[in-house]
Write a structure and sequence with these properties.
The protein is built from 11 helices and 4 strands; from the N terminus they run αααββαβαααααβαα. With 222 residues, it is mostly helical. It has a two-stranded antiparallel ribbon. Strands 3-4 form a two-stranded antiparallel ribbon. α4 (71-83) packs across α5. The chain starts with 6 loop residues before the first helix and ends in a 14-residue tail after the last helix.
């Protein structure tokens, strides 16, 4: 028997489904070029091309792995930084310097660096973590293995750094701050259900799930 979602999450998942349908219908698409993205990635490799590299804003955490991430998500994230829906001074400055073609090229390049295909099933989780996954309806948007999102503009989260996921989840709960936070009605509603301890537990589990994300070391000198 499929567990019942609580009313709040059920509403949010329905909204996410409608959003995906609307975006798919309106998508015009700019085709990205992998080789062009490789040449344009010099601004990215100083953080995303170094294994274990840490960011200190808004707190110390590893920068996210983006090699193997969905191209649609990378474009979506860059546009959110550009608009200020994601507040991060460095990323907003970088995103603001990019054209739509630049974003598409970078996304194509990083999506092409996918690691081995993720297993179809999730590894066993504790009862507490299973309850958190159900509470957040994570698989409803990010896929049954958390590496096959229902829409390419949603991220793969399997295997992502735990400290980054924790910071990201917290960011969705921040309101009225000019320098910290992420504006997303769906994720905001979901994240606000969790305490910080629950976010940590969920992020720690997600980081153990086998996924396609990785950091591919790249030289600054080409």
């Amino acid at each position: 028997m499929t567990p019942m979602l609580n009313p709040i999450v059920r509403t949010l998942v329905a909204a996410a489904t409608l959003f995906v349908a609307a975006m798919s219908a309106q998508a015009q698409g700019v085709t990205g070029d992998v080789e062009a993205g490789h040449k344009k990635a010099e601004m990215c490799i100083g953080c995303h091309g170094i294994k274990g590299y840490q960011n200190s804003f808004p707190e110390i955490h590893k920068v996210p792995m983006i090699s193997g991430q969905s191209a649609g998500y990378i474009v979506s994230a860059l546009k959110a930084y550009n608009k200020g829906d994601r507040k991060h001074p460095s990323m907003r400055g970088i995103a603001g310097s990019l054209s739509e073609q630049d974003m598409a090229d970078l996304a194509a390049f990083y999506a092409s660096q996918s690691g081995p295909a993720a297993p179809e099933a999730l590894p066993a989780a504790s009862a507490d973590v299973s309850a958190l996954l159900q509470k957040g309806a994570c698989v409803s948007c990010h896929g049954a293995n958390l590496s096959k999102p229902i829409d390419p503009s949603y991220p793969k989260v399997a295997g992502q750094h735990a400290d980054y996921l924790y910071v990201a989840l917290k960011a969705y709960t921040v309101e009225g701050n000019k320098v910290i936070g992420r504006s997303n009605g769906i994720m905001g509603g979901i994240a606000k259900q969790f305490s910080h301890d629950e976010m940590r537990a969920l992020a720690k589990y997600l980081a153990t799930v086998p996924g396609e994300l990785q950091t591919v070391p790249q030289s600054r000198f080409r």
